[in-house]
């Protein structure tokens, strides 16, 4: 019996080894094959090492939120109105699956130094719009059309679209200089794009990194700072010439860079590093301050006195005093508020903020002087954005459903809702300068931006866009 069993085991091992040999061999071949497919069909735009050239990088860091099914759809059908063409005729389902497998593999060391940055600069010799628009620039809108990688400029007084510029997969809100001469936009693939609001033209672009979080502009408009998570650094760029001035290496992934409007420095916070950096505008010297947790998500009080931050999945939020540069308070929280996208308003003497929660369907209203919770309101789903305006009665909150819910600021009760299209997700809200209209995105291939009268809550207009995301008004844009 014993020997039999042993013999069987040896035999078993033998078969398993053969099986493993065949499958390792198959995997190598498969890997080789998918690399060839990638290099033949994708590398001209997405770079042989997948860092991206004219198209975004195809690496796990940038693709992690996309499921295989979504990638398959993009590759098969392409992305409408972009250079990403459909491959359904050229590649079989098996080929596409094999390419998806390949782009899920780590890409190895990513090198993108100051020379790469410098060489990527491109200032087009373009004339601007022949007839320069005349408008109140403080009511200028930028509408991000995710499906086309475009930013549209719109006159907020009459909703006329004026021009647009290609940015690619856009991340974070656009920035303006104080005089509103230029708009600056950052793409997830690291491109920083400048648009002239005087000449109404694409004023140039430079690739500051391979994967970018966001950008900030110094109050005098002379410096731009790009926070990159690949490579991990902060790149300072001369906004006039778009030349890189300094690459500041970071030990940790920056979560964002922010410019203090009344202070002297850019502030950088990190996703996995318990530090805050102050980068001085005048000499770019860095002051590093240790805090009690990484500030992966943060919020800056209205007078720029306090910086409120929390790590992902944290049990408390930390309040950092920007003047004394110390943590002055730590507050326990039940479920994490999404600090970066709060609605802020004043009620009597109180400053209140409404935060949507990450992953749970609640909106929490907090007094931001005492950090006492005033009310927790259950929404239809867990939304991303809550917005209000000093001239309007409600907080408008998206809920990851087809509906935007409206909360009365005084009673703190949900009193109304708008559903622009029952079959499509409604998200992100922005107001015109005076708060008369609210703009809501219908996030869909066959999407739109829908304009509501904020008093009567009736629809005034809808403009079609492919997957419109953020909309930013020059006056109301706070973050
Ligand atoms: C002619 C240039 C070109 C070629 C060739 C090309 N793409 Fe693209 N691809 C693009 C552009 C441009 C975008 C970005 C479109 C936008 O602005 O949203 C893109 C976007 C993508 C995206 C979405 C990326 C993201 O982060 O959202 C995927 C996935 C993708 N391409 C896969 C592929 C694959 C796989 C191949 C090869 C089979 C390929 N592409 C070939 C130009 C190209």
Descriptive account of the structure:
By secondary structure, this protein is of the alpha+beta class. Among the domains are: 2-103, Cytochrome Bc1 Complex, Chain D, domain 2 (Orthogonal Bundle), CATH 1.10.760; 335-479, 7 Propeller (Methylamine Dehydrogenase, Chain H), CATH 2.130.10. Helices cover 16% and strands 39% of the residues. It has six helices and 32 strands. The chain has helices at 2-41, 43-46, 60-63, 68-77, 93-103, 114-120; strands spanning 140-145, 150-155, 161-166, 175-176, 182-186, 191-196, 201-207, 211-217, 223-230, 232-238, 244-249, 254-259, 265-270, 275-280, 286-290, 297-300, 306-310, 316-321, 326-332, 343-347, 350-356, 362-367, 372-378, 386-387, 394-398, 404-408, 414-418, 425-431, 437-443, 447-453, 459-465, 468-473. The protein has a four-stranded antiparallel beta sheet with strand order 3-2-1-32, with no helix packed on it. A hairpin with a 5-residue loop joins strand 17 (306-310) and strand 18. Helix 1 crosses helix 5 and helix 4 (68-77) crosses helix 5. The longest helix has 40 residues, at 2-41. The termini are far apart.
Short précis:
The chain is α+β, with helices and mostly antiparallel strands. It has six helices and 32 strands.
User: Given the helix and strand composition, which structural class is it?
Assistant: alpha+beta
CATH topology group of the domain at 335-479: Methylamine Dehydrogenase, Chain H
The percentage of residues in β strands lies in: 35-45%
Arithmetic mean of pLDDT: 90
Major β-sheet profile:
4 strands, antiparallel
Low-confidence blocks of residues: 1-8
Q: Approximately how much helix is present in the residues?
A: 10-25%
Gyration radius, in Å: 25 Å
Label the overall shape: globular
- CATH architectural group of the domain at 335-479: 7 Propeller
Number of helices: 6
What ligand molecules are bound, each kind once? heme C
Strand order of the largest sheet: 3-2-1-32
The count of β-strands is 32
Look at the structure and name the CATH superfamily of the domain at 335-479: YVTN repeat-like/Quinoprotein amine dehydrogenase
CATH hierarchy class name of the domain at 335-479: Mainly Beta
Distance linking N and C termini: 75 Å
């Amino acid at each position: 019996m014993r020997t039999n069993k042993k013999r069987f085991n040896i035999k078993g091992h033998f078969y398993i080894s053969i099986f493993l040999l065949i499958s390792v061999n198959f995997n190598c071949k498969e890997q080789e094959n998918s690399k060839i497919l990638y290099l033949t069909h994708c590398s001209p735009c997405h770079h042989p090492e997948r860092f991206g050239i004219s198209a975004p990088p195809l690496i796990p860091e940038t693709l992690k939120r996309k499921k295989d099914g979504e990638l398959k759809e993009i590759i098969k059908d392409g992305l409408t109105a972009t250079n990403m063409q459909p491959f359904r005729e050229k590649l079989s389902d098996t080929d596409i699956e094999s390419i998806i497998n390949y782009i899920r593999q780590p890409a190895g060391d990513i090198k993108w130094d100051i020379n790469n940055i410098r060489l990527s600069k491109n200032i087009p010799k373009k004339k601007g719009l022949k007839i320069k628009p005349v408008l109140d620039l403080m009511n200028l809108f930028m509408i991000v059309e995710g499906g086309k990688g475009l930013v549209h400029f719109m006159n907020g007084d009459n909703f006329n679209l004026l021009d647009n510029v290609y940015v690619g997969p856009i991340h974070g809100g656009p920035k303006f200089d104080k005089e509103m001469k230029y708009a600056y936009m950052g793409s997830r693939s690291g491109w920083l794009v400048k648009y002239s609001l005087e000449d109404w033209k694409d004023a140039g672009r430079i690739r500051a990194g391979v994967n970018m979080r966001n950008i900030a502009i110094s109050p005098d408009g002379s410096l731009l700072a790009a926070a990159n998570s690949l490579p991990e650094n902060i790149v300072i760029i001369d906004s006039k010439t778009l030349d890189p001035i300094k690459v500041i290496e970071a030990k940790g992934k920056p979560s964002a860079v922010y410019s203090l409007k009344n202070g002297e420095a850019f502030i950088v916070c990190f996703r996995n590093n318990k530090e805050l950096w102050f980068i001085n505008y005048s000499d770019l010297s860095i002051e590093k301050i240790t805090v009690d947790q990484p500030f992966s998500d943060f919020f800056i009080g209205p007078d720029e006195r306090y910086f409120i931050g929390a790590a992902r999945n944290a049990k408390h939020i930390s309040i950092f005093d920007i003047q004394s540069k110390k943590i002055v308070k730590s507050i326990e929280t039940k479920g994490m508020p999404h600090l970066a996208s709060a609605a802020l308003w004043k009620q009597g003497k109180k400053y209140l903020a409404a935060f949507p929660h990450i992953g749970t369907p609640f909106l929490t209203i907090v007094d931001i002087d005492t950090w006492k919770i005033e009310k927790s309101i259950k929404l239809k789903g867990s939304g991303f954005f809550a917005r209000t305006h000093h001239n309007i009665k409600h907080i408008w909150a998206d809920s990851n459903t087809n509906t935007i819910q409206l909360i009365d600021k005084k009673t703190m009760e949900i009193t109304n809702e708008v559903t622009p299209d029952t079959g499509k997700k409604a998200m992100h809200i922005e107001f015109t300068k005076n708060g008369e209209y609210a703009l809501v995105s219908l996030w869909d291939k066959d999407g739109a931006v829908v304009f509501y009268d904020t008093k009567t809550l009736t629809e005034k207009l809808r403009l079609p866009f492919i997957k419109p995301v953020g909309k930013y008004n020059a006056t109301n844009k706070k973050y």
